[in-house]
Amino acid sequence: MCPQHFHEMSTANISDFPYHDLPESVEIDLNHYQQKYNWDCGLSCVLMVLPKEDREDFLSNFAGICKDEGFNKSTWTIDLCYLLKRYKIKHVYYTITFGIHPEHATNSFYDTILTKDESRINRRFDNAEKCGIKIKTASVTIEYILDQLRFGPVIVLTNTQLIICDRCKFNKMKTELRKLIPCVPKFQGHYIVLCGYSANLRKIFYRNPTMYNHVCVMSMEVFEHARKSSGTDEDIIFVKTLENQI
Ligand SMILES: [Zn+2]
């Protein structure tokens, strides 16, 4: 058994959420985009939050824009910010690690891409402020995330092994099995887009680019594990597309 697993479980107790200041529920309409390859989940999330015209522009110039932006089949959260900036989408990126976390060098998920991407990513972090990209080095609470959903969708880096969907049963079987043989699954980075929540049900609504057009649902506890899993750096982008409508 892995003692770490139980430690993680106990830190994600959300039973005392102060929901009273938040709307009971929020739902944001998004146009779904299903990823085409195994490396474009982040780009698919950006496509889901872009206004129609920008989305069409990105899709019709996809290869050219990827080349121009400099990513070669591996996108980091900072890359998604530059892409949002390219389309003048207001957003704020929170992470607990400004730049590349030194521990990623020992993480097999980052192993091969790190050598290839390191200088490019560091350069992008260094130039972010100059380019008008807002990065805050902090861990955010679930309450803050729910509150920000009033202003627009939220792109989050998760460990895909830990996300489940109560509706389509995505990963459900794996999770059940893990209860029998508890162990921390290997990190596998995957971006999803949050598009609402229900405080009464304590559920979060999201779109998973792996899936065909569909709003997925998971409990807030499950979400907390998935986004705080070691390897995510708690990367999260608050997109402010609905800010002017409030
Ligand atoms: Zn689902």
Automatic annotation (TrEMBL):
<dbReference type="InterPro" id="IPR018616">
    <property type="entry name" value="GUCD1"/>
</dbReference>
<protein>
    <recommendedName>
        <fullName>Protein GUCD1</fullName>
    </recommendedName>
</protein>
<dbReference type="Pfam" id="PF09778">
    <property type="entry name" value="Guanylate_cyc_2"/>
</dbReference>
